[in-house]
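INTERNAL AUDIT FORM
Audit reference: QA-55
Scope: verify that the stored structure record matches its stored sequence.
Auditor: D.O.
Record contents follow.
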Amino acid sequence: MNRSRRTVCTTAALTLAFSALVLTEVAHAGKPVGSDKGADSSEEGGSDKSGTGIYAAAQIKYTGAVAKGGAGGNMASSDANWTPPPCWYAPKYGAKEFKKKMSKELEEAANAPGMAGHAGAAINELERHYEDDYGWTDTPGYKDYNVDKDGEGMFWAAYENPDEPDYLKRTSCSDIPFWVENGEAPPPQYEEAISPEILAALAYQHMELPKTKVTLAPDGNTKVKLPTWAWLDKAAFDEVEATAAIDIPGFALRATTTAKPRSLTLDPGTEDATTLPADGRCPIVDGRIGEPYAKGKAKETPPCGIVYGRSSAGATFPLKASLTWEISWTGTGQNAPVGMPDGKIEAVQDVTVEEIQSINR
């Protein structure tokens, strides 16, 4: 039986009722535990040992160059408007497991003090929705929680991104759990349903890139109006990959996000300096950025470097080096790389600049 959702009760009332249940304490995706290359982090689903049915929370497994201790990676997006997904929908419960939890919590919520009026009516609607095949135009109902289909699909529910600081965004996936058959796509109205694109963005968020440590010559103290050579070790140009994957009975998705170094940008930390090249952006040439200094080149113009116009007067200038990475992803159903906003990491190192001492005879 299907009716327009708005003729029965408002979406807000359904959300209110559902949020009163323990079940809606959102199923966190969990934070990845990993390290640099070769890191492996997993949060496993499993089987219901109580005999009530099959379930497997769609936790995300991260491998590759991901941050340690579950933290976000060290890469920032060059696009200020790009952000990782704050929440998403993914498989959470098998039918028997869902019935066990949901029926108990509906009963407890219905008997809780203050559950009257719109909230009480909405709880009744939820019970009918999952037990008595009562649905709405875009949301079909279920007969006895789809128990006769246990193992043939799963109820999907909301997951929060634990690294999203904005509570309203993190909890914005507020639709009630819905059934998806194994091998079928979720209904199109659930735009936040987990996908390879979402997994790629999460891999991006947790990616840990090599530190940007620029080598300078002269090393330590440099001189006014003499070129300071700058370059990066070739090891900094290794391609970096991070993979986010879900693999549970009846459902599997994967995406690998790849970062390739593109260019180095230098900010001398003072306006009284000239960068080389003039825009401060040192491109990759023949697999490296900049050129290591060699004896006898002190007065030559380096392909990447800085000329300071004044001394740091006993202090230091904060040289900021930003390494830009080209980001793309591949994944389930997408073998050709798909571009994402460039990423960048920054490092600041102190530079002492001294006047050239002259000798008067």
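Auditor finding: record pair retrieved intact. The mean pLDDT is 83.
Action required: none
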